[in-house]
Specification:
- With about 270 residues, the chain is mainly alpha-helical.
- Helix content is about 60%, strand content about 5%.
- The strands form two sheets. A three-stranded antiparallel β-sheet has the order 3-4-5. It has a two-stranded antiparallel ribbon with strand order 1-2.
Length: about 270
Amino acid sequence: MGRWRHGIGQLLAFGWQEALSCVFAVGVFGCLALSRLVALPLAPYDAVLVGCLLLTGVLWATGVETTREVAVIGVFHLVGFALEVYKVRMGSWSYPGHGHTKLFDVPLYSGFMYAAVGSYILHAWRRFDLELSGYRPVPVTALAVAVYANFFTHHRLPDLRWPLALALVWACRRTWVSFRVRRARYRMPLAVSFALIGFFLWLAENAATYLGAWRYPHQAGGWQPVHAAKFGAWSLLVVVSFVLVAAVRHRPGAGGSGAAGPGPPGPPTPG
């Protein structure tokens, strides 16, 4: 009975830390829901942008997000928005409707959805006291850059996502993520954590498209589930987010880098 009680307590503690790690992402998702379900004086895209800016300011002012974390989140915003502009131009998805804060047919708030993924990894890193063993930053970072480039180039060149995914599994084959829940430490393969976060992002994407945050071509006649293949694209995008955080956080021979558990809602899946 004591073992069961301890296990349930650990699970609840893990879930609470996960919820705290997702605070920025939940706030962004709340802005999306509010803009679609409540009549506001602003267009939905504009209202979400205002909400995300206010959310960022409040989290920074209250110390939930540090100045350094806000700066890193800003980098995620720029990286994500650049990808959004290209993908919308290529017809991968669209943002129908009017908005004063749309640039190149992409609402400026879209970058915050990528930033939400980065915020989750930053918070999980700190709250779970994440550590890596066997991490090889040079090959993993090189492959992450290739993954990001492939999101652009596969429209005109052969799609290399599967070879890149296999190469990432190989590069991470000996890398483990150690995380702390209260006084106990657990670990999992880094590649498994990428897949777990990608899966929960895919679930969140289904909810976001249901709310009309963006629309895939097959959803033009009404909402339909996002294709299961997008789960793989999400897992690859998580790798890109991870190496950006690792470039700031990871110090060889010291604790503190990784990704573990389910992640937050996010933007349309590159693919």
